[in-house]
Amino acid sequence: MSEHAHAEHDDRSYVHVSSPQTLIAVFLALVALTILTVWVAKHEVGRFDLLVAMAIAIVKCSLVMGFFMHLKYDRAMNRLVFFGSLLFFAFFLGITTLDLDSSKPEIEDFRIENPMIKAPAASDSVKPGAAKKEAGTGDHEKK
Questions:
Q1: Res 15: pLDDT
Q2: How many distinct helices (H) and strands (E) make up the chain?
Q3: Whether residues 35 and 55 fall in one domain
Q4: Nearest to 24 by CA among 58, 63, 61
Q5: Do 52 and 68 sit in the same domain of this protein?
Q6: Biggest alpha carbon distance in the chain?
Q7: Helix (H, G, I), strand (E, B), or coil: what is residue 117?
Q8: Is 35 within a domain?
Q9: Based on the domain organization, do 104 and 67 belong to the same domain?
Q10: What per-residue confidence (pLDDT) applies to 10?
């Protein structure tokens, strides 16, 4: 394609402004953060489980949107909308988590009063597609 053909579409085309090295570095950071996410999921961090998981997810989301979706190089208004949505999400999540501790006593009381019923063994289960028949409920016994 000639330079002139490219010039005709400059107003609508987008240029990849990130170097391949930057994109590879961001990719490796995303892989490392994914490994960290799995590690955090397997190990208890106490009360901060949700906070740590959300922080890692926000960093990964920011990397993807900033570099792979070119938000870092986009208009300031688009960045403002993105960070505004992150603030709204943090506010929403914060208000929600504040309410978790207030209902803990009722949840614990309910669990004590209504212990979970043990799930049936695999041999007791009905195979998919097979009708479960109870003794004495067949159509041939109706009068």
A1: 66
A2: 5, 0
A3: yes
A4: 63
A5: yes
A6: 89
A7: coil
A8: yes
A9: no
A10: 52
